[in-house]
Design goal:
By secondary structure, this protein is mainly α. The protein folds into 2 domains: 92 residues, Helix-hairpin-Helix base-excision DNA repair enzymes (C-terminal) (Endonuclease Iii, domain 2, Orthogonal Bundle); 102 residues, Endonuclease III, domain 1. Helix content is 61%, strand content 0%. Helix 2 packs antiparallel against helix 8. Bound molecules: iron/sulfur cluster (SF4).
Amino acid sequence: MHDPAMQRKCQRIQSVLDATIGVPEVPLDHTDAYTLLIAVLLSAQCTDVRVNQVTPQLFARARTPAQMVLLSVEEIRAIIRPCGLSPQKAAAIHRLSEILLAEHASLVPNDLAALERLPGVGHKTAQVVLAQAFGVATFPVDTHIHRLATRWGLTSGSSVTQTERDLKAQFPERDWNKLHLQIIWFGRTYCPARGHDPARCPICSWAAP
Ligand code: SF4
């Protein structure tokens, strides 16, 4: 980071996030890398609250790849239906469990490229798993983080990929995982769906360009 004004802005954003959000919790309930991977996959176009309502039932039936492949795709689909996109998600969960069994000794790989090769696992999902299961420094950017980073003038907002690059360049690597979660929780806590007054926002009021 070479722009002193941007550096001051980022430090101020971090202190607001530390003061308003503090140490953020991982929002998706899980017990290990595999249950986290399944929960993150289910969270696509679904709320974390809904995922947390569905996963206890799924994990009661299967919490390892070996147990999951014993379920049919249709059985998985029936359980995860409330999360939406259930045909695609059920097929992906079944297939990725087969791949983990056959190619990764039943373990979730601690490797971005290997994770991204699994069905139903995109770049963001893979990064969330690396960060939250393995403690690898990543900065997963979803549409909410992308929108806030753009509003706060931290990126041009041209694409999610560009936003990830800009955020990684502007914040210290040791803070990436915490910031990712803090920004998600900030959005949930402070950003209503519509009709908000940016002048009263703890960050937009001074950071918006
Ligand atoms: S102005 Fe409101 S909606 Fe926009 S980032 Fe700030 S809190 Fe969220």
